[in-house]
Specification:
Arc Repressor Mutant, subunit A, 127 residues, alpha+beta
Length: 127
């Protein structure tokens, strides 16, 4: 069951994708639109704060909507392939992958805690 947060993130993904697609001025050899610019400014033009950059761009990448070709930086625009618009089905799948990844991270954190506790039991002379 999608939450209000999921619905908002999906809407943000759609709006950012549409803005990238509209701003794309070239196409590659395969006919895929290429956006070249500053994605942080693009988000601001869409009316969003920079705080949503990571969740939106991660989700767009995980859905196969966009692919970064050139990483930008100060004064250097990034370059993205604008491949396909987001769909609710792809968005839901991305959420499931994210949850699975979070579970793996939690499991690893628990294992590290156990190892750290065991290391504290080892006498200093043995280390």
């Amino acid at each position: 069951m999608p939450t209000a947060v999921d619905a908002r993130l999906y809407e943000q993904c759609c709006k950012v994708y549409d803005a990238m697609n509209e701003a794309a001025q070239t196409r590659n050899a395969d006919g895929v639109a290429v956006y070249r610019g500053y994605t942080t400014y693009l988000l601001e033009q869409c009316g969003y704060s920079i705080s949503i950059y990571t969740p939106v761009m991660r989700r767009l990448r995980s859905m196969g909507c966009v692919q970064q070709k050139v990483r930008g930086g100060r004064g250097i625009p990034s370059e993205w392939l604008v491949i396909k618009p987001p769909t609710r089905a792809a968005f839901a799948q991305g959420g499931q992958r994210w949850m699975a990844q979070q579970e793996r991270i939690s499991d690893l954190e628990a294992r590290v805690e156990i190892l750290e506790a065991r290391l504290e039991e080892v006498p200093e002379e043995a280390v």
